[in-house]
Amino acid sequence: MKKSNNLPAIFIIIISIFLSFHDSSPDIAYEKKLKKETNFSVDNALFHLKNISQKPHFTGSNEHKEVQKYIITALEKLGLKPEIQRQVAFNKKWKAGTTAENIVARIKGASGNNALLLLTHYDSNPHSSLGASDAGSGVVTILESLRAFLTNNEQPINDIVIVFSDAEEVGLLGAQAFVDHHPWAKDVKLVLNLEARGSGGPSIMLMETNGKNKRLVEEFIKSKSTFPVSSSLFYSIYKILPNDTDLTVFREDGNINGFNFAFIDDHFDYHTEQDSYERMDRNSLIHQADYMMTSLNHFANSDITTLNSEEDLVFVNFPLLKIISYPFNWILPMLIFSVVLFLVVYFAGARNQKITIVGSLTGFVPFTISLFVTGGVSFMLWKIILLIHPGYTDILHGFTYNGYLYIAAFSSLTIWILFKIYSYYKSIKPTDLFIAPIVFGILLNLVIFKYLPGAAFLIIPVLLAIFVLYIIVLMNLKRTSGLILFAIISIPSVYILIPLIKLFPVGLGLKILFVSSIFITFLFGWLIPILLKEQKKSYWQIIAGLATIALFTMTTFSSGFNVDNKKPNSLVFIENTDTKSSYWATYNNTIDSYTKQIFNENYTEGNLPETSGKSKYNTPFKYHKLAKYQNLPNSKISVILDTIIENNREINFTIIPQRKINKYEIYTSNPLEIKGICLNGESYDYETPLKIKQGSVLTYQMANFDTEVSVLLKLPKDSKLELTLNEISYDLLTNPAFNLESRNETMMPMPFVTNDAIITSKELKF
């Protein structure tokens, strides 16, 4: 075979990679078009955002009330009549409660009472997050979308209900209060929810439905979002993962369909003091605005009562068409068709000697080795990197500040490994080497059909690879022109797979980099006719090797912390009233100048024996140290009722704080069965008794109007109740009893754990 130049084909692949990212998010240039077409002003939204993200505003804080007042005033300026729904709420799934204060308003439609709900939450995460992205971006997007929508002076067909929910961050409690208690909830037929799990990047559409997705997908496509980003794989994974949003409450308890629009890049800012106005990605806000304006205009004036379906669709982003979809019942026929087509092409190629049986069988060796080596090396290398940079382990969600560099470095390393492995098989024709990736792709889709049908769009790259094989086998094209044609055919494969290579480690942490390497290996295999040439040396291998060295060097030099990329750290003071003992504790693996003021000597590695607080990632304390007993005031416990009614034991007690308390946690160390719970007069019964071996019974976030907490537990009549009560306040750094030095400008409170807190603990026996 004649030597050829694959540079034009590689250039097409590079352009495809660029387009896969470019088409997933707007840029600043789109801002003017958005304003011209919808009247949405990004500057107006940013003005609101700057005002509501000055300070942390978690439920129960003073700033929470200020943000609440600001939103009410903004709604009133739009001519709406907002109300506050103040309601005790309890989420049985999260075993969390509070007195939520939702901000609600309604725009009357022209026909009936069917309502479209615009939803986001206005509380920030306790206790240090500024909440600019999560979910200040949602608040300001809805406010400005309403202003832009109302300037048209056209009454919508459906009512539009607006809910700025409270206490989302402590258990989806505002949403629970609305679904369980507000009379408007029965009118809601569809929810549009805005969220954020980082401070930038493209916004992804995720659906919530108790049924099938067909009608929701079809109507979303009809809404004509300019930059739709979604796939049925995201939809399937989202349903598996325990990452709930307010919208989950509407689906589970209200049987209401909805769309989540959420951006997740720059995950390192999530729930931290770095979730600020300055770090909020303007392009992400524009993306949310585009979703909201297109969806609002579409669903406010369409039939939202017919969105339930008995059929699921496979859907995915696709070049030029934006999103393509097809029914789940096509998955098996497409898989069978791919097998039949492949066998026909394979034997045709073997007959005309374009494919050799021995060569194609040998080709399974390098591809199999590649899958194991690239995945295995990436998995183990990340483990080694954590040993080299232990500070990374203090970033609990697992995505470092230089995480994008790591994605690029691991990607280039994977590509180098692939070229290196295949360099030992130069004697085998690229066409023969092309067979194994196609077969593995078919097998992968067989597994997908069985276990994860939402990912069935991955049959598309396989079919395109078979089509390329068909051209190689049955057509005689000039080598260079053939490579260009193959690259053009492969554009959808690149377009579909490349975003996944980035998305998985961003969304699930860098420990998932090995999944990205496996995706790259499959894509490499499906591009073999373009990438591999019959010559002694591949210059792309050299380029990938040099890029790997450069990128890992860059990750090393950017591995530290600074004023823009702060180190998370933690300190808490825990006092046990029963044992008259006190401890300092930290969640940090690495001791820095802030934690060293306590953990300088004579400290113990490991968790505390006492119940020590709740963590999102079930993170235990890493070190603790005996401290001076402070004899801090404990809440008064008043038993109101302890009686047997039929087969139930009912215990009602009141917790009255004696100092400023932000949160109560109640734990059990013994097995406990709960039939029902009543919080501050609001009763919640379990259809099936909740059985707790040990752990959390209840978390209660003290709201601005809470002065005490009344708890009634309904138990089997022979139950013995031995609980632990933790009283948590976020005043460790301001309490004069401790006189701690503040963090320097390169540090911040660690998110996802109880932090900067004083915790008093005692047993409750009834």
Q: Can you describe what's shown?
A:
The relative contact order is 0.11. This protein has 22 helices and 24 strands. The strands form four sheets. It has a 15-stranded mixed sheet that branches. The termini are far apart. By secondary structure, it is α+β, with helices and mostly antiparallel strands. Helix content is 40%, strand content 23%. The mean pLDDT is 94. The chain has three domains: 7-18 and 327-557, no CATH class; 24-318, Zn peptidases (Aminopeptidase); 569-766, Immunoglobulin-like (Sandwich). Helix 6 runs parallel beside helix 9 (246-254), helix 14 runs antiparallel to helix 22 and helix 17 (459-474) packs antiparallel against helix 19.
Layout of secondary structure:
Blueprint: H1 7-22, H2 28-38, H3 42-52, H4 62-77, E1 83-91, E2 96-107, E3 115-121, H5 132-150, E4 159-165, H6 173-181, E5 188-196, E6 200-208, H7 214-222, H8 232-240, H9 246-254, E7 257-265, H10 282-299, E8 313-318, E9 322-327, H11 331-351, H12 357-362, H13 364-388, H14 403-423, H15 430-433, H16 435-451, H17 459-474, H18 479-489, H19 491-508, H20 513-526, H21 528-531, H22 539-557, E10 567-569, E11 572-576, E12 581-586, E13 604-605, E14 623-627, E15 636-645, E16 648-656, E17 663-668, E18 672-679, E19 682-692, E20 695-701, E21 709-716, E22 722-729, E23 747-749, E24 757-765
Parallel strand pairs: 2-20, 3-4, 3-5, 5-7, 10-23, 11-24
Antiparallel strand pairs: 1-2, 2-4, 6-7, 8-9, 11-12, 12-14, 13-14, 15-16, 16-21, 17-20, 17-22, 18-19, 18-21, 22-24
Helix pairs in contact: 1-18, 1-19, 2-10, 3-5, 5-10, 6-9, 11-16, 11-17, 13-14, 13-20, 14-19, 14-20, 14-22, 16-17, 17-19, 19-20
